[in-house]
Amino acid sequence: MIDLHTHSTFSDGELIPAELVRRAKVAGYRAIAITDHADSANMSVILENIVRFSHKHGHYFDMTVIPGVELTHTPPSLIPEMVISARENGAKVVVMHGETIVEPVARGTNLAAIEAGVDVLAHPGLISDEEAALAAQKGVLLEITTRGGHSYSNGHVLAKARQHGARLVINNDAHAPKDLVGEDMRKTIAFGAGMTLPEYNQAQQNAWELVQRFMHSS
Fold first, then answer.
1. Using CB atoms within 10 A of its CB, is residue 198 exposed (0-12), middle (13-18) or buried (19+)?
2. What is the chain's mean pLDDT, rounded?
3. Residue spans per domain, the chain
4. Please, which residues have CB within 8 angstroms of residue 156's CB and are 6 or more apart in sequence?
5. Contact 108, 134 (CB under 8 A)
6. Which fold would CATH assign to domain 2-217?
7. Cα–Cα distance between 155 and 161 in angstroms, integer?
8. Residue pair 151/125 in contact by the 8 Å Cβ criterion
9. CB of 59 within 8 A of CB of 106?
10. Helix (H) or strand (E) holding 45
11. How far apart are CA 206 and CA 186, in angstroms?
């Protein structure tokens, strides 16, 4: 399993990076991205530390650890420059905190993030046809999430991805040990949203392709 959306104590996660990675390894994951919530105030601090941890210690866990960020509640007009800044500061996975139906995310966030070329649009809520079609065109991965609340719109995201040919990934959005679900629960949530087994396997492959891109660039 691969997870491209997790949080540590550098934002609102409960675990320091080392424990997050260790627990993910024991839960059956072979690669994770640490993508703490970031804005212009904390991005450089997060990435300085996560990049150092990934480069110096990640391989000791027999895991691929990818440094990243989740741009969160960023005004849509600022998203393009924030994506550039994240990559310049060492983020190998840029996740956008999408328009989940359980938080007051600014309207226009999904579209601005897709236009800016983020890697993953997390919990995109009631994503529109225009946004899903553009995500397919630009290769932005749409997230099916195992996290409670955000997962309420998984079925809608899946339907729009199918309709427009957008690629999917499955992530935990882990903030605590209990969020690192095993493969059985991961499949249950995906199938509960209406995913078929081939679609589930393709989502896994989509995540692996992003991991390989990181490995080849390191």
1. exposed
2. 96
3. 2-217
4. 125, 126, 127
5. no
6. TIM Barrel (3.20.20)
7. 10
8. no
9. no
10. helix 43-57
11. 16
Round to whole Å and give the CA distance between 120 and 5. Answer: 9
pLDDT digit string, tens, across residues 117-161: 999 999 999 999 999 999 999 999 999 999 999 999 999 999 999
Q: Which H helix or E strand runs over 143?
A: strand 141-145
- Which residues neighbour 126 within 8 Å (Cβ) at sequence distance 6 or greater? 99, 101, 153, 156
Q: Taking Cα atoms as reference points, which of 139, 154, 4 lies closest to residue 64?
A: 4
At what angle are helices 43-57 and 17-27 packed, to 10 degrees?
60
Tokens 């800044």 sit at which residue?
Answer: 85
Q: Is the pLDDT of residue 218 over 70?
A: no
Describe the strand order of the beta sheet including 93-97 as a list of residue ranges: 2-6, 31-38, 64-71, 93-97, 120-122, 141-145, 168-171
CA distance 128 to 108: 11
| Distant-in-sequence, close-in-space partners of 115: CB < 8 Å, separation ≥ 6 | 80, 134, 138
Q: Check: CB of residue 135 under 8 Å from CB of residue 115.
A: no
- Measured over the CA atoms of residue 169, residue 136, residue 154 and residue 102, the dihedral's sign is positive
